[in-house]
Structure formats: structure tokens, C-alpha cells
Amino acid sequence: MLKGKTALITGSTSGIGLATAHTLAEQGVNLVLHGLLAEAEGIALAEEFANKYNIKALFDGANLMDSNAIASFMDRAIDMMGTIDILVNNAGIQHTESIDTFPENKWNAIIAINLTAAFHTIQKSLPGMKANGWGRIINIASVHGLVASLNKCAYVTAKHGLIGLTKVVALECAEQGITANSICPGWVDTPLINNQINEIAQKQQLEFEQAKYNLVTAKQPLPEMMAPRQIGEFILFLCSDNARSITGASLPMDGAWTAQ
Ligand code: NAD
Questions:
Q1: How many domains does the chain contain in total?
Q2: 212 and 156, same domain (yes or no)
Q3: Residues noted as catalytic
Q4: Residue of 9, 10, 14 with the most ligand 1 atoms within 8 Å of its CB, for mutation
Q5: How buried is residue 150: exposed, middle or buried, by Cβ count under 10 Å (0-12/13-18/19+)?
Q6: How much distance in Å is there from the Cα of 131 to the middle of ligand 1?
Q7: Residues 120-174: pLDDT tens digits?
Q8: Does residue 140 line the site of ligand 1, with CB under 6 A?
Q9: What is the reported pTM?
Q10: Per the count of CB atoms within 10 A, which of 58, 85, 200, 249 is most buried?
Q11: Is 106 exposed, middle or buried (0-12, 13-18, 19+ CB in 10 A)?
């Protein structure tokens, strides 16, 4: 059903984005891959996808902190691939520190990458989706779009904002065959959280795996990290026709974290 459509996934050189790229490519979806990777490596990744799945694949390394770079990236993607049918705003960064000393440059970077970039990519993708009367926008938020944790002021703010943005887009596009949803994962096994695990390991003098377990179980009742692939499969469902009435939703995949 999705064969021949095009998905643009920000931050698809790693973690959740990369796993989602594989899940969609298996269905014959053409891809715009993106992330902070050296140009040659990015091009090689796109070639690998194109050959393995017999799809069209493009790589772009635009830095999402730069709105001009995002504009060029989106124009190039649309120029080369046609309409972006599926937009997954996934790229994100983290910095944990008390608000007392939270650096302004980290605040600005997190708001730009985790929130403002999605505003720009959505704005650029909507005209094509509207012209086709079909589109899927999936924003990777977090449980931290629904609840807060200590030392994550910028991340929690950005993710709450992303959920708000998603709801407005869902309302504005409800009659045009376009859905917009946020996915709110708990812990996912990706490089993003390694700093947090290393900090616990250092402070509590623990092995990496024990520190990881302690981090997960501190707030998440399900005592395991999710595999990135699980999110890819959920995104695939949201792209299906059966999911056409799921829109404006903030969908937890969080091992009962926010059930408490
Ligand atoms: P990751 O670190 O594995 O991947 C992040 C991706 O974003 C990479 O491709 C990276 O190149 C890209 N990126 C980072 N900064 C960028 C910039 N300035 N410009 C362009 N690209 C940039 O992380 P992940 O865990 O796969 O995270 C993906 C999304 O999932 C993020 O939005 C994150 O907040 C969210 N999330 C992750 C978890 C988790 O436990 N890992 C939980 C909830 C939500």
C-alpha cells in the first residue's frame, strides 16, 4: 500500500530514525535519509538502502539548528523525490543539568532541533500532501512531552511544544487526508541516552549494564528498554489506511511510565 510513496525521516542515521527507515524501506517506500553524518558516509548509506530495498534514497546532512539549511534541505528533497508523503520528525538531542546552571546554548540547540525544526519541515511538506489529499506526519516526542523529570528543562519544554504543534497541525489538516500524531516513547536503546547511563555508572560506581537497568527502572515499570524497531513498526501502522482516524494523538509507548 505504501510502495512508491516517499518518507523523509530527520535523524535517520542512527537509533529510532534508522530503524524506521528500514521498516518503511521494506514496504517499498522511497527515503530521504538525514542526519549528522559526513557527506560520503551519508551517500553510502543512501546507496545501501537503494540497493538493498530497490527504492530511491537520498541523503542530506542539513544541520537542523539552521533554518536556512532546513529550507534548502526540504527544497532539494521535494525537487528530487516529489511530494513528501510521510514526514517523521525524529532528530533530537538531550542535555541534562539543573535549571540553575543550564547553559543558554544548550537550551537554544534543544529548542531548535527538537521543536522548531519540525515547524519548518511540516510547513514545507504540507503543500504537496494537501495537493495529493494524503499525508502522514509523525513527530517523535517522548514521555517527556507528557510529564517532566528533573534536570531536563529544555528537553521537556521542547517535547511538550512538539505535542502542541502536532495537535494544531492535526486540526488544520483533518479534512485533507493528512494525519499528525506524536509518539511518546519511554526508554529506547539508542546512543542518545549513553551519557545518562555513563553518568549513573560513574556516580554509583556501577557497570554500564547495571547503570542502564537502574536508569530504566527508576521511572518505567516495564524493566526493559524498547528496541528502536518497535517504534518503526508503530509508525508503519500509523501510515496505514486503518490508522486514518488516529490524528492529533499523543501516543505513549512507555512501559506504563505515564500510567502512574
Ligand atoms: P540518536 O542519538 O540515536 O539519533 C539522533 C539523530 O538526530 C541522529 O541521526 C543525529 O545525526 C540527528 N541529529 C542530532 N542533532 C542534529 C542536528 N543538529 N541536525 C541534524 N540532525 C541531528 O537518538 P534516538 O534515541 O534515536 O532519538 C530519536 C528521537 O527519539 C529524538 O527526538 C529523541 O528525543 C526521541 N526519544 C528517544 C528516547 C530514547 O530513550 N532513546 C526516548 C524518547 C524519545
A1: 2
A2: no
A3: 155
A4: 14
A5: exposed
A6: 30
A7: 999 999 999 999 999 999 999 999 999 999 999 999 999 999 999 999 999 999 9
A8: yes
A9: 0.98
A10: 85
A11: middle
